[in-house]
Amino acid sequence: MKILFLLKSLEIGGLEIVTANLANKFVLEGHDVVIWAFYKEEHSIRNRIDEKIPVIWGDRYIVNEKNVYSLRETLLNYKIEIVINQLGLPYKPARLLKKAKNGLDIKTIAVCHSNPAMNGKIMNIDIKKELTSNIVKKSLLSVTRLLFKFITSASMRYVYNNSDYYMVLADIYKQTFVEFIGVKDSAKLLSLPNPVTIDSSDYNPYTCIKEKKILYVGRLENVAKRVSRVIEIWKYLEKTFPDWKLIIVGDGPEKEHLENLVNQYNLKEVQFEGFKIPNEYYKKCSVLLLTSEFEGFPLVLSEASSYGTIPVAYGSFPAVYDIIDNEKNGLIVLGNKGFDAAVMAEAVSMLMKDEQKRNEMSYAAYKYSKHFSMDAIYKRWLKLFETIL
């Protein structure tokens, strides 16, 4: 099959890495793949993409004649049969694609890589509402949120109406999508999770010895990820478990604030590792923490699981129940009326105290992660391709 991925750019990010891995797998299985991106980033993941895959760069993030011509020429020259639009929220890529494939028999699949009803901008408004006690400001922010929700749903509705199929990352998001955009006909709505994007073939659950380490992997920011919560949890645990360590892998705008929190609480067993390839950390650490206020389908949970690192997540997003079978291959923690560091710390402490439970849950996590392996997800993509062509 001849497949084109449509992207905004090839910057270093989760969506782009997922695309690169899927594209490489499709080529490995004998398909022809092309990537078309609106613009070229100075720091991109082109080196992660098979050299056999052409990458075509557009002219800025805009719908203009130059981009329409470039994309149409690409569709024609490479005899594309299926376009996977990895930008299922903004209307611009769908509008460009509609113009470029006019009159051509090409199937399009748009993919929403987040919770359809929540994103960073909406969450930012919610945070500002929480932080202000001014009634006028709260009212203005409420109106702003409604306006932004209307714009977002209208944009997604346009993408849905102008695609042959629309994909969300979990079954539970289907109903969320239907309710959020007000679609009446959901026949072309599909669900398929992203694959694990790291190679964990070097992990052997029978020989690998886990260390007494708790891990966070991800961007250090405090809108969606709320990484400060990880420090708040550790504050409850460090004195009780002096032989354990907290390892933080990642970088971002909140790093200095987090380091200040560690100093403020006089915590001694916290290591900031910076931006690193996480494989070796997954292999060694026993537990992974995820305390985000919202997520779509976080790869970090299935990545950690593939190395037998037990995922413990705050149950703030619906897809977490597709990834973790609570108390079997990980823990989902719900606070009292929102996040509660003490409640989550108590859940983690139960694992820290019980080595046998950790071993059992670690193996269960490893086994369950196979549902999200590249081979498993590729087979589902292939079945979809064979159905729609």
CATH architecture of the largest domain: 3-Layer(aba) Sandwich
Q: Do you know the CATH topology of the largest domain?
A: Rossmann fold
What is the name of the CATH class of the largest domain? Alpha Beta
Report low-confidence residues grouped into runs of 5 or more: none
Shape: globular
The structure class reads alpha/beta
Query: What's the rounded overall pLDDT mean?
Result: 95
Biggest sheet overview: 7 strands, parallel
Enumerate how many helices there are, as a single number: 14
Gyration radius, in Å: 22 Å
What's the order of the H and E elements? EHEEHEHEHHEHEEHEHEHEHEHEHHH
Widest beta sheet: strand line-up = 3-2-1-4-5-6-7
* Terminal-residue CA separation: 9 Å
Number of strands: 13
Binned strand content: 15-25%
Tally of individual domains = 2
- What is the percent of helical residues? 40-55%
CATH superfamily of the largest domain: Glycogen Phosphorylase B
Can you give keywords for this protein?
single chain; 389 residues; alpha/beta; Rossmann fold; seven-stranded parallel beta sheet; six-stranded parallel beta sheet; 43% helix; glycosyltransferase activity; Glyco_trans_4-like_N
How do the strands and helices of this protein lay out in sequence?
Layout: E1 2-7, H1 14-28, E2 32-37, E3 55-57, H2 65-77, E4 82-85, H3 91-100, E5 107-111, H4 120-131, H5 135-161, E6 165-168, H6 172-181, E7 189-191, E8 211-217, H7 228-237, E9 245-249, H8 255-264, E10 270-274, H9 279-284, E11 285-290, H10 299-306, E12 310-314, H11 320-323, E13 331-333, H12 341-353, H13 355-368, H14 374-388
Parallel strand pairs: 1-2, 1-4, 2-3, 4-5, 5-6, 6-7, 8-9, 8-11, 9-10, 11-12, 12-13
Helix pairs in contact: 2-3, 3-5, 4-5, 7-12, 10-13
